[in-house]
Specification:
about 300 residues; alpha+beta; 9-stranded antiparallel β-sheet; 15 strands; about 40% helix; globular; CARD domain-containing protein
């Protein structure tokens, strides 16, 4: 049952727990129990709004988090509830991660109780990308087709309603918040999660060496590259591709046309795009293609 995330053991504890049997609670009650109102810093909410969200999906993410972080202790035990949980991000217990679920949305928030000014950008970026990568892995593991939109909400708002889409925040420098009845600077809502704009990648581009490798090996990849959409999904998680670009590639007619479109875009997506592409190949059962590309780096000629 551990294999299928039905049972999980908290590190250092002898007993097993069953996520599906967690008691219910409200986010206001949990925040009061933990004292989040006294926190020195609260990030905005990072939300993933799914077209369809199986109830068991939250349990899979919960078990994954329990394998990486320790649940926060409260008077009644651990802050683990049905559709709501809190984790300590390090041994100091000053930084905590909240994860909550509604009918179609999973939302994350990080709070800090530290009195010292601390930059949470790297922490938020890591949590966001690791969570999105885990979702891709779960989709691959269970063979399910799930799609979601990245949304963001003010730190002290109800996270599951009237969230702003990433596209809306990037297109408009300010957006009206009905909860506060005022306009917010868009960057203050999404920037805590270190969402990178891919527009800047166009100016830098990929290194000439790596761009030449992709061009030289394009025929080999057209014949041997598979799971193109999953590759694009990993690249989107790493902020190499946007949702719009991934959607454009996905709707190309056939695997080879999708590959051709991806290869035409990658050279303009920054220095990290080649490295992330190689990583995505290895994860998506394209290790033979990744190995073929890596061999080209040490070959003679223009490289």
């Amino acid at each position: 049952m551990k294999k299928f995330d039905i049972l999980v053991q908290i590190e250092g504890e002898n007993a097993y727990i069953m996520p599906s049997m967690f008691p219910p609670s409200s986010i206001s009650t949990v925040c009061m129990d933990i004292g989040i109102v006294k926190a020195n810093c609260k990030t905005s909410w990072f939300c993933m709004k799914f077209k369809f969200l199986p109830p068991s999906f939250f349990s899979h993410l919960l078990v994954w988090l329990m394998n990486n972080y320790r649940p926060t202790r409260v008077k009644s035990g651990f802050a683990l509830y049905r559709g709501l949980c809190v984790f300590d991000l390090d041994s100091s217990r000053c930084e905590k991660l909240l994860m909550t679920m509604s009918i179609d949305t999973i939302a994350l928030q990080i709070v800090s109780f530290s009195k010292q000014t601390q930059d949470l950008l790297e922490v938020c970026s890591g949590v966001r990308k690791d969570t999105r990568r885990k979702i891709v892995n779960l989709k691959k593991r269970y063979g399910i087709d799930l799609s979601y939109e990245q949304m963001f909400k003010c730190s002290d708002c109800t996270c599951h309603t009237e969230a702003f889409s990433l596209k809306q925040l990037i297109e408009n420098t300010r957006n009206y918040c009905s909860h506060h009845q005022e306009a917010h600077e868009s960057a203050t809502i999404y920037s805590p999660w270190k969402v990178e704009s891919t527009e800047g990648h166009i100016e830098k581009g990929m290194s000439k060496k790596h761009s030449q490798i992709l061009q030289t090996c394009s025929e080999h990849m057209l014949e041997n590259l598979y799971n193109v959409d999953m590759i694009c999904e990993y690249l989107e998680v790493d902020d190499i591709l946007t949702e719009e670009i991934r959607d454009t590639i996905k709707h190309k007619n056939g695997r080879q046309e999708q590959t051709k479109e991806l290869l035409s875009i990658l050279p303009f997506k920054g220095e990290k795009s080649y490295e992330r592409f190689i990583e995505a190949l290895k994860i998506t059962e394209n290790k033979n293609v990744a190995h073929y590309l890596e061999q080209q780096v040490g070959s003679t000629g223009t490289f």
